[in-house]
Specification:
Largest sheet: 8 strands, mixed
Shape: globular
Helix content: 25-40%
CATH class of the largest domain: Alpha Beta
Structural class: alpha/beta
Number of helices: 16
Radius of gyration: 23 Å
Number of strands: 14
Number of domains: 3
CATH architecture of the largest domain: 3-Layer(aba) Sandwich
Order of helices and strands: HHHEEHHEHEHEEHEHEEEHHHEEHEEHHH
């Protein structure tokens, strides 16, 4: 099976409820096929997209399995020729003794400095560095003599400040006793999944939706069920059809990731009714809900009727800075005891100094002022980016929350393009991984506006267009792409 031969994958089956991750299962299957001769040296493997489509999983999961075997010397990436079995094969399989091979799959695509178009990082030039440095220095001094263990939920004064803030900004009525301080969204999601006992069960996830959520569910033994999103947010009726017995739904109702739409009132009611009738849970990822660029942010799902079935997760990493590394969970009363027990025995509070600094930042009113300033700044930067792209002949770009969606021709490899752009210090996010289906029809780029600087935006856009292959390739189509229509709210 050398040359153009492609491996037959009909024998590859996955145990979605098993203790072994899907990544390790795929890697083990391929390694076994190589050792048994079903995959000889030089044999070509399916692309990430094709294998992910056959198995019904995220393409990032397949990529991680391939990269694990590349690190072991069993596979090689041959560019346009695809991924192939190494030729010659290594004399013997070696254990993973290289620390690089243990890094997360996206580690090499991260940056310690905020880059142009990079999602998930606030404006680096608007970070209140002097103020935060002063508050943090004072907090380090105040906590330097603390030698005991603190409350596993976090410092009482911070939990009180968070409870006050979410009451004002998100309409959530809760006591400080319901607040658990975490290291961010991922830490809060881990607590929620353990407290619910979600392993082996189904969970609704938005499609398109945050890829990290799908990966986290798979690693936790939870089966994600992709539920489509339209201009009104998650289509609850479709979720009922696809997985009527799901144990939970994970949603971004305030500002859907990545479309930016808010969950419509009738959909909120449908979702809350489903959770109550099914004894299911809603995990509310309050993704950038406080930074709406048009109108007032809608109240959180965890406010008002049905809040007893909602686990609210917030983070300060995307509104202040990732290095703050703090978030929180508002525990609904029926689940509060279990969530607190999980936090106490399987987790632990973040740095006391960071908690003290954030407490002062909240209590002294700096955070609300910072949010108001960021809304104005991001609105100006999004407008500037859209106007620049239009002036350069790119007319299909559309606003998507704190990003701009740039559709690409069907079949365009947006992930490879994003990697090439990173070499040029540009960090657009490929759109296709946000969809669960491994197809080429969702190719596009998400251009975050937070670090778009007016003095450089023309140059940065021209460099990006050059990487894509010219504005004619972007502007020469006669009909809008499906992705653009999705953002405009006309269809998914």
């Amino acid at each position: 099976m050398r040359g153009g031969a492609v491996w037959e994958t009909t024998e590859l089956t996955l145990d979605r409820g098993g203790a072994t991750t899907l990544v390790d299962q795929i890697a083990r299957h391929i390694q076994t096929a190589i050792m048994e001769g079903a995959l000889p040296a030089g044999a070509r493997l399916p692309s990430w997209r094709d294998l992910a489509g056959q198995l019904g999983i995220a393409r990032g999961t397949v990529r991680s399995a391939y990269e694990k075997l590349i690190d072991r010397g069993l596979l090689i990436s041959a560019g346009s020729a695809g991924t192939r079995v190494a030729d010659p094969l290594p004399a013997a399989l070696q254990p993973l003794d290289d620390a690089e091979s243990l890094l997360p799959e996206d580690f090499h695509h991260r940056s310690t400095q905020a880059l142009v178009f990079q999602m998930g990082v606030p404006a680096h030039d608007a970070f209140p560095a002097t103020l935060w440095t002063r508050l943090h220095r004072q907090a380090v001094q105040a906590t330097s003599l603390q030698t005991g263990y603190g409350d596993p939920r976090g410092l009482p004064e911070l939990r009180s400040a968070i409870a006050s803030h979410v009451a004002i900004a998100r309409g959530i009525e809760c006591s400080p006793e319901q607040v658990i301080v975490t290291t961010g969204y991922r830490g809060g999601l881990g607590l929620a999944l353990r407290a619910i006992g979600a392993a082996g069960k189904q969970a609704w996830v938005e499609d398109p939706g945050y890829p990290v959520t799908r990966y986290a569910l798979e690693l936790s033994g939870v089966h994600p069920v992709a539920v489509p999103v339209d201009r009104d947010g998650l289509i609850v009726a479709r979720g009922r059809e696809l997985a009527p017995r799901a144990a939970l739904a994970i949603v971004t109702p305030g500002q859907q990731a990545p479309t930016g739409v808010a969950l419509a009132e009738h959909r909120r009611e449908e979702l809350l009714d489903w959770a109550a009738a099914s004894n299911a849970w809603i995990v509310e990822d309050d993704y950038l809900a406080e930074l709406h660029l048009s109108g007032r942010s809608p109240n959180a799902l965890a406010s008002g009727r049905g809040a007893d079935r909602v686990i609210h997760i917030g983070t300060f990493s995307k509104t202040i800075a990732p290095m703050v590394g703090l978030g929180f969970v508002v525990a609904p009363p029926p689940l509060a005891r279990t969530l607190i027990d999980v936090a106490a025995w399987l987790s632990g509070p973040p740095s006391a100094a960071l908690q003290v600094a954030l407490t002062a930042f909240l209590r002294e009113g700096h955070y609300l002022r910072h949010l108001r300033r960021m809304r104005r700044l991001y609105g100006e930067r999004r407008r500037c980016l859209l106007e620049t792209l239009a002036r350069l002949g790119v007319r299909e770009a559309a606003p998507a929350g704190l990003s701009v969606l740039l559709p690409l021709p069907s079949g365009f490899d947006d992930q490879r393009l994003a990697m090439e752009a990173r070499v040029a210090d540009l960090a657009p996010s490929p759109l296709s991984p946000w969809f669960s289906a491994a197809t080429d029809s969702h190719s596009g780029l998400l251009l975050a506006v937070a670090n778009v600087l007016e003095r450089r935006v023309d140059q940065d856009c021209r460099r990006l267009i050059a990487l894509i292959g010219g504005r004619d390739r972007l502007a020469g189509r006669t009909a809008p792409r499906d992705d653009a229509r999705m953002i405009e709210g006309k269809r998914v």
